[in-house]
Amino acid sequence: MWGLMITVFLFLYSLMCYYIGRRGWTILGKSASRLTRILCLIVFFLLVLPFPAAELGEDVLPGAIVPWLTIWGGYSMIAVLYGFFLLLAIDFIRLIDKWARFIPAAVKEHKKTPPILGAAVVILVLAIVTYGGWNARNPVITEYDVTVNKDAGSLQQLQIAMISDIHYGLIIDVERLNRLIEMMNEIKPDMVVLAGDITDGSLPSGEAGKLAEVLGQIKVPYGTYAVPGNHDRDLRDHDSELMRHLKEAGIHVLKDNSVRIGDSLYLIGRDDPNRRSVPARKELKDLLKGTDSSRPLILLDHQPLDLEQAQANGIDLQLSGHTHRGQIFPANLITGLIYEQDWGLLKKENYHLIISSGFGTWGPPLRIGNHPEVVSITLNFK
Q1: How far apart are CA 159 and CA 141, in angstroms?
Q2: Fewer Cβ atoms within 10 Å of its own Cβ: the N or the C terminal residue of the chain?
Q3: What's the pLDDT at 325?
Q4: What does the H/E/C string look like for 297-362?
């Protein structure tokens, strides 16, 4: 399935590249010198080739090249995407003008109009990509205030920090996680939850220890808890290097089990539904056996799915990630169609759902149209 999706996307990407190349050649004009044309071709191929080269050549290219090619390909792929949209918008305006004739003839027929438009597209694309790269590296704290109408024993209030979609790996390294520790010190939570996709895939030897060492710096009164996400391949095996290091760092990985927090509430952690190993994840109703439903029930589930099931089983607060809020506009329009809620707070009677846009990035190391975040939740009890 994933191979089919990559094939389809590469086909669409090729069409976008062809469209950009054809329009760019037209804008360049016949009067351009031979040297100018050669330079433009070199820049064009440096723009469009890194992404497919990184995707198709991962297993054959030298290991030292692939990481840099992947990063370069991520940036260039988004540049192609926005360049295509801008050129398409210009051509759409030209098409409407053929009927409405609202563009002055002096503008349309001026010899400098095509190169000025071309330069404007290039500058705007560079500005968008530059902003997206900067935005991805500057997470914010998003705050919510939620009230659960249940008795939580000795607790009247609980401060929770939720971190989702770190995607530790090639792009998000230890240095990037230092900002995460600073944000934890700002929030001063009572409990921390890691809502899946802690890693971007299987980690090279030694990286699991580095990741766990950083996360282990988070010290909170009620502990740090995590659930697997669809990218957390190293959390599928109970005896993996990552599982061992997280345990040593005091981080509790909940895979279809629950834990009671003092005399106050229950935290239920679900395994990810895309996990390829067996058995399949348990039903929520089975996970709730042995819990006291008169106490607050907090569900930690990477993907915001089965919301009706969570509500029907008396979950008071569900914490999820996964969607990235689309990460790159206009992908948020797609996530908005796929999920009932793709970001923020959703309230249905006594059921609350909070979805984070995530701390890191997947694929292109950019965020456009949303912010990376750490979620701070003030949970009040009655």
Answers
A1: 13
A2: N
A3: 97
A4: EEEECCCCCCHHHHHHCCCCEEEECCCHHHCECCHHHHHHHHCCCCCEEEEECCEEEEECCCCCCC
| Number of residues that this document lists for the chain | 382
pTM of the shown model: 0.93
Question: Distance between alpha carbon 208 and the CA centroid of its chain, in Å?
Answer: 21
Q: In whole numbers, what is the pLDDT of the chain averaged over residues?
A: 93
Sheet containing 344-348: order of strands: 257-261, 265-269, 297-300, 317-320, 351-355, 344-348
- Nearest CA among 164, 256, 176 for reference residue 210: 176
> Would you say domain 141-381 falls under CATH 1.10.357.10?
no
Residue 1 pLDDT exceeds 60: no
Q: What is the rounded CA–CA span in Å between residue 159 and residue 161?
A: 7
Q: Where, residue-wise, is CATH 3.60.21.10 in the chain?
A: 141-381
CB distance 320 to 354 below 8 Å: yes
Instruction: Please report, as a single letter, which amino acid is at residue 249.
Output: A
Tell me the per-residue pLDDT of 320-378, one tens digit each, with 9 for 90 and over.
Answer: 999 999 999 999 999 999 999 999 999 999 999 999 999 999 999 999 999 999 999 99
- Residue indicated by tokens 């169609």: 337
